[in-house]
Amino acid sequence: MKKKLLAGVMTFASSIAAFAQTQTAAVPASAQTAKYIGAAIAVSTAVLAGGFAVAKIGAAAMGAMAEKPELSGKALPYVGLAEGICLWGFLVALLIILL
């Protein structure tokens, strides 16, 4: 668990550093940096939440399908809904950066 958390923090820090290297002349550097940090927080939070959700829902779905195979059609869409959390985080980050 600690290794995964450390890897997530390192990925978060490297994404902030990568985003902070580009700047535009129209917006002050501090506002531009805050925008990229906000986008990085949006994506990282959504990806972590989506990962935890897929882990819990996927394990429960596999357990249910092991007992009753006919539940596969009802259980798998919930895994897709949990993956959608990551897409929403990406869209929020994209809106933060572009607007």
UniProtKB/TrEMBL annotation:
<keyword id="KW-0472">Membrane</keyword>
<feature type="transmembrane region" description="Helical">
    <location>
        <begin position="75"/>
        <end position="98"/>
    </location>
</feature>
<keyword id="KW-0406">Ion transport</keyword>
<keyword id="KW-0732">Signal</keyword>
<dbReference type="GO" id="GO:0033179">
    <property type="term" value="C:proton-transporting V-type ATPase, V0 domain"/>
</dbReference>
<comment type="similarity">
    <text>Belongs to the V-ATPase proteolipid subunit family.</text>
</comment>
<protein>
    <recommendedName>
        <fullName>V-ATPase proteolipid subunit C-like domain-containing protein</fullName>
    </recommendedName>
</protein>
<keyword id="KW-1133">Transmembrane helix</keyword>
<dbReference type="InterPro" id="IPR038662">
    <property type="entry name" value="ATP_synth_F0_csu_sf"/>
</dbReference>
<dbReference type="InterPro" id="IPR000245">
    <property type="entry name" value="ATPase_proteolipid_csu"/>
</dbReference>
<feature type="signal peptide">
    <location>
        <begin position="1"/>
        <end position="20"/>
    </location>
</feature>
<feature type="transmembrane region" description="Helical">
    <location>
        <begin position="36"/>
        <end position="55"/>
    </location>
</feature>
<dbReference type="GO" id="GO:0008289">
    <property type="term" value="F:lipid binding"/>
</dbReference>
<dbReference type="InterPro" id="IPR002379">
    <property type="entry name" value="ATPase_proteolipid_c-like_dom"/>
</dbReference>
<dbReference type="InterPro" id="IPR035921">
    <property type="entry name" value="F/V-ATP_Csub_sf"/>
</dbReference>
<feature type="domain" description="V-ATPase proteolipid subunit C-like">
    <location>
        <begin position="37"/>
        <end position="96"/>
    </location>
</feature>
<keyword id="KW-0813">Transport</keyword>
<keyword id="KW-0812">Transmembrane</keyword>
<dbReference type="GO" id="GO:0046961">
    <property type="term" value="F:proton-transporting ATPase activity, rotational mechanism"/>
</dbReference>
<keyword id="KW-0138">CF(0)</keyword>
<dbReference type="GO" id="GO:0045259">
    <property type="term" value="C:proton-transporting ATP synthase complex"/>
</dbReference>
<dbReference type="Pfam" id="PF00137">
    <property type="entry name" value="ATP-synt_C"/>
</dbReference>
<keyword id="KW-0375">Hydrogen ion transport</keyword>
<keyword id="KW-0446">Lipid-binding</keyword>
